[in-house]
Specification:
The protein has 309 residues and is of the alpha+beta class. The chain is built from seven helices and four strands. It comes from Almyronema epifaneia S1.
Length: 309
């Protein structure tokens, strides 16, 4: 059975260092993991917000430049290219052809959309309702679970701030006939000015967010382990040279003195506690030697007085 008292001094010291090392790794690993995860989220959020601003620019360009040029054709033909959300979605798919953005997904989730692909799911509906409950909603971000895995998302409210939006999403009777013919008159209408009708959502697999943080964590912890291992190795060398070996030599001298060799001497030049212990041991050895000499003289005197009688 393992007993701490049976270990040698060097082993006890090494065990103490290992325990301190493991405690430090656990504590610093937890704090570092949280910090790196937050940093990774900030990095992904920054990239996602940049993409969202780009999509907003595409929406604005489509609404102000493309749509007016094709208005005459909308009476007889529905052109999805004139719809800002459609243009943004298609441009984003082009972005996704780049390896830098291939993991990102974009959706303009809407409670009452014209195009069924924009229908908000239950999770997105809760986000939109949360935006509606606020007087000045901003973007939100976090993690959500899906059948395909965990996702990190960033969402911003879609609010009707331009009257031109109501040309297609106001009253169904006033909408372009080609739009009604394509999607019907049941969905995507009766929107109101300043109403929050949906949310722009950009999402990315959580593994993408966490993988870079995990790699950084493993690298930093690997450095910590290497530094601590080297530190433990060097401390053990120092301990063996300046503590364990002097104590072992002192123990050997004490063993020799205990068997009667009072001339055995231990030398230690250091001024630290081990050196002070060595000086005290040598003083004790000299005192014992003097006591033994006095005892020997006393015995000799007793034998001399006994023989004279």
């Amino acid at each position: 059975m393992f007993k701490l008292k049976d270990l040698k001094l060097g082993q006890k010291f090494t065990l103490l260092l290992v325990l301190i090392f493991l405690s430090g790794i656990v504590a610093s690993g937890a704090a570092l993991s949280s910090t790196l995860n937050y940093g990774a989220q900030v990095q992904v959020t920054t990239k996602a917000l940049m993409l969202m601003e780009t999509m907003n620019s595409v929406r604005e360009y489509t609404n102000s430049e493309v749509k007016p040029e094709l208005t005459a054709r909308l009476a007889t033909e529905f052109l999805p290219e004139t719809v800002p959300s459609y243009s943004a979605r298609e441009v984003f798919e082009t972005f996704r052809s780049s390896p830098l953005y291939s993991d990102f997904f974009y959706k303009e989730a809407t409670l009452n959309p014209t195009n069924p692909r924009d229908q908000a799911d239950a999770f997105e509906t809760r986000i939109i309702e949360g935006f509606r409950a606020q007087s000045n909603p901003k973007e939100v971000n976090g993690f959500r679970s899906t059948p395909s895995g965990e996702l990190f998302y960033i969402a911003r409210p879609i609010q009707i701030v331009e009257q031109s939006c109501l040309e297609c999403h106001g009253l169904a009777s006033a909408a372009p006939a080609s739009l009604v013919d394509r999607y019907g008159s049941e969905h995507g209408f009766d929107w109101q000015m300043d109403e929050i009708v949906g949310a722009q959502v950009i999402s990315v697999p959580a593994s993408t967010v966490l993988s870079s943080a995990r790699k950084s964590l493993l690298l930093i912890l690997g450095i910590f382990v290497a530094v601590f291992a080297i530190a433990i190795f060097l401390v053990n060398i120092w301990l063996q040279r300046y503590v364990v070996r002097p104590l072992n030599r002192m123990a050997m001298v004490a063993e020799a003195v205990s068997t009667g060799d009072t001339d055995a001497e231990f030398t230690q030049s250091s001024k630290d506690e081990v050196g002070q212990l060595a000086q005290s041991f040598n003083r004790m050895r000299l005192s014992l030697q003097m006591a033994m000499q006095r005892l020997e003289r006393y015995r000799s005197g007793r034998r001399s007085s006994g023989s004279s009688k």
